Amino acid sequence: GAVVSQHPSRVICKSGTSVKIECRSLDFQATTMFWYRQFPKQSLMLMATSNEGSKATYEQGVEKDKFLINHASLTLSTLTVTSAHPEDSSFYICSALAGALYNEQFFGPGTRLTVL
Amino acid sequence: AQSVTQLGSHVSVSEGALVLLRCNYSSSVPPYLFWYVQYPNQGLQLLLKYTSAATLVKGINGFEAEFKKSETSFHLTKPSAHMSDAAEYFCAVSENQAGTALIFGKGTTLSVSS
User: Is A46 close to B101, i.e. CB distance below 8 A?
Assistant: First the structure.
């Protein structure tokens, strides 16, 4: 199957700082990527859909100015958590749609964000 | 609107026993259904998916699931549990085969004891 990577795998930051998380499709081009958030012992909640070359589509209740998404190339999408606060601490997972190859989305390994 | 309900947040079985993880869905359109597995601090891995081709779907690692429209269910089974099956399992529904904009259930933690 196709491989999706995320970097970093873990990040700890101070409250008020911004953190950037990268999501890369390693062996395929992904015109569409998704960002999910997962709280401990809970399900994944879709935050936004990222399309290459256009603005991301955010789910209801997700602050687009808080969670900046950029999909500048067919293999890279970034999520920037701006002015992070402890309540932003969570597990962030991206996925990439390999439509041409497999007609399914592949998930990255996730990024654990801890805001102190 | 679509939704998924996973009955039982935690299932415990003995090694070698049958695994049954329950999933019921709600959808106003013909659904595409998925089962994913998540190991600690890792992303999700697709176990299997129902795309209307066959009601009994076989996946990886010996898992299978049966789509029952009359019961709006898509339960996941494995005849004989292995210690390595211990993980979090998520059922999800989508309006398309590619699984874009997946709606996930709350997950079921599977524990396997020796």
Answer: yes
Q: Could you tell me how many residues make up chain B?
A: 114
Q: Which residues of B touch A43 (CB under 8 A)?
A: 90, 104-107
pLDDT tens column, A36-47: 999 877 888 999
pLDDT digits (tens, 9 = 90+) for B66-98: 999 999 999 999 999 999 999 999 999 988 777
pLDDT > 90? residue A72: no
Across the interface, whether the CB atoms of B102 and A4 are under 8 A apart is answered no
DSSP chain B: --EEEEE-SEEEEETTS-EEEEEEEE-SS--EEEEEEE-TT--EEEEEEE-SS-SEEE-GGG-EEEEEGGGTEEEEEESS--GGG-EEEEEEEESSTT-TT-EE---EEEEEE-
Count of Cβ atoms closer than 10 Å to residue A100 Cβ = 10
User: What average pLDDT does this structure show over B1-23?
Assistant: 95
Q: What is the rounded CA–CA span in Å between residue B68 and residue A116?
A: 47
Question: CA angle, B50 as apex, B45 and B53 as ends, to 5°?
Answer: 135
Query: For B9, left (φ over 0), alpha (ψ -120 to 50), or beta?
Result: alpha
